[in-house]
Amino acid sequence: MTVYQLDAAMVRDAVTAARPDSPDDEEAVSSAFARAAWSVLCEPGDGVAGDVVAACGADRALSLLLERADPQRWLDAGGGRLDVGAAEVAAGIERWSPRLSARGVVSALTSAARLGARLVLPGDAAWPSGADDLGRHAPLALWVRGRLAALEPPGGSVAVVGSRDSTAYGEHMAIEIAGGLGDRGFSVVSGAAYGIDAAAHRAALAVKRTTVAFVAGGVDRAYPAGHRDLLTRIAAYGAVVAELPCGASPTRWRFLQRNRLIAACSQAVVVVEAGRRSGSLNTAGHAAALGRPLGAVPGPATSALSAGCHRLLREYDAACVTSADEVAELALGRLPTEQPTLLEGMADDPDAVRVLDALSPRSARAADELARRTGLAPRTVAATLGLLALGGRVRESATGWVRA
Amino acid sequence: MTVYQLDAAMVRDAVTAARPDSPDDEEAVSSAFARAAWSVLCEPGDGVAGDVVAACGADRALSLLLERADPQRWLDAGGGRLDVGAAEVAAGIERWSPRLSARGVVSALTSAARLGARLVLPGDAAWPSGADDLGRHAPLALWVRGRLAALEPPGGSVAVVGSRDSTAYGEHMAIEIAGGLGDRGFSVVSGAAYGIDAAAHRAALAVKRTTVAFVAGGVDRAYPAGHRDLLTRIAAYGAVVAELPCGASPTRWRFLQRNRLIAACSQAVVVVEAGRRSGSLNTAGHAAALGRPLGAVPGPATSALSAGCHRLLREYDAACVTSADEVAELALGRLPTEQPTLLEGMADDPDAVRVLDALSPRSARAADELARRTGLAPRTVAATLGLLALGGRVRESATGWVRA
């Protein structure tokens, strides 16, 4: 390990502290250190970084950056697998270089270890496979506080997101849906924000199920500060996950990029309550782009905080979901089945409807009178009266038929 | 005119009383009388009656029925245009014969005339063209109380329907949508029931626009009785329309069949509020079957009276509509346009978002510090700061940049 001119033992100590159960051969350690470095060097969603790491390997790409190699050397190292050109690599080098600092990477690893957080990498058993659907925008590493197994839960996971300034109605729906999903074995994914996110996490915790919070800053940051205890409980029963290393603060950009992880690491995304410009619509947009089933909970048309959900129903073909059952169907890819009863309006046989319509509970009516009233053939009236009499719904008196 | 052995002058008087502005040659009168007779003879939606009237003509078919002709003669008279076989014709004859009564037809015509109602037939200028989309189930005649021009209004018409036991929310939405549609030049079609229907009619009347009520019994019947005044006002500014002649009472069967007329005679159908088994879902089913655009107004997922609307959104691909504007778009066939902004989350340039995130309103920060914080190339930071400074959103102090 020559990168950053760091002592190999220091690198190994830092990496194994944050990855205590992972292979510690030199190659594995070097690669993990380089991935940690890339999570420090670039902002989330940097597609050029994704490309060079995929084509050259994280440690080779890091060496090239440290050596101040010209773009052509990067392209050569990529061996034709690099989709981007020299200009994009040059722009990347300019972006990444200001953050080159060995201390930053070591500190990210040791801060994580001190907190009990882990560095999780592609190829690890705990790596959430859905994240790879982001392609060149996939995270290069994830920092996880809590239970690693929560990232790829056996029962599947559903994102339940929504507005920070939720209404009592929205919170009620978030609790119903997230609690019900927990009861059905799903993990509940959200963003740990005030309002709908918090209600969803709390409902999952209340039924003692796994819940995962993707946060926009480092996992050491309690954001919002009022959710410090909630984040600790989420980490105890599930996981708090960040793409940025410890110490990173949440920014608007990082919130938007964090949203893509919520969508990618869930089987379906449900927006419970959202204004027309809510950030949760951005999460919905990522879900749609990734082909994840997208649901929206309807609310009063008069509520500004349901306008975003209605926009998803109207313009983005989101499924209308009103219960945990319906969300579970959405996540399992079961399309709602059309009920053939809509046109019938009632389950009764149409002839029976017409005969019952024509009967009175008091005045007895003869069969020929019923034929005239119903517009049915006398034979049909007779057969229908017979069936209805068997069911106890009509009876024959001395002067004709009455409704029972 | 030999049918029913009626005097020709009596037939002519009866017909011209109910069709004062229509041609009164013998053929026209005979055909109109026969159509009136068929509206007495069969229940709404009788497809076999529709077939024989289309294939043989209304008066020839009526003569055959009066002559007690065997089914083969009907098939011969249809000249190969009849889709049904002898068995179906025989069953039809059995259904229709019990109601054969000359008095019934004459009384239907004279009762209508006494009320000022008109008999409207296919081919009349006032005939609503949408009704023909029902094919063999199209009405054979319509009885209209009010303004004939209301049946085919120049601005188009939209059905606004829903539950009888509506909530204040549902009525509010019906008023907003129906009133707004009226303001936009649409006629409002509904079923004159309590609840949503009444709110829709009243809202259209309040903005002095045309509204049309399709009723399940005769136009002389006030049903529900509490809507006698409302029906009179609807007839004054629009029309009350029935498929059944005066004197006919509304039955469950006739309500269901009436719903197909509401759907057929509108450019779009909107369900405002409906329980899971509301009759308005039957209207929605007809709209879907006819290919009419179908909208549903969302409501709280916790409201049993919105469950039917949510079912339409979820299972029947109804459009989610929350305002008169959205309903008008639906009726005009304008698909909602996908806004490209959903994934962006905000209109700002992403670099500007990141630079603004990294700036403080108090502590000045140097450009290289901003490059490190944003993860952007120093060049990009400099260019972005320049643009933001032009917009007055950042300013440079002696020690660096601050957010304005």
From TrEMBL, chains A, B:
Domain DprA winged helix residues, every copy: 347-396
Pfam families assigned: DNA_processg_A (PF02481), WHD_DprA (PF17782)
Name of this chain's protein: DNA protecting protein DprA
Listed Gene3D superfamilies: 3.40.50.450, Winged helix-like DNA-binding domain superfamily/Winged helix DNA-binding domain
Organism: Cnuibacter physcomitrellae
GO biological process: one example: DNA-mediated transformation
InterPro entries: DprA, DprA_WH, DrpA_SLOG, WH-like_DNA-bd_sf
Lineage: Bacteria, Bacillati, Actinomycetota, Actinomycetes, Micrococcales
Protein family per UniProt: Belongs to the DprA/Smf family.
Domain Smf/DprA SLOG: residue ranges: 119-329
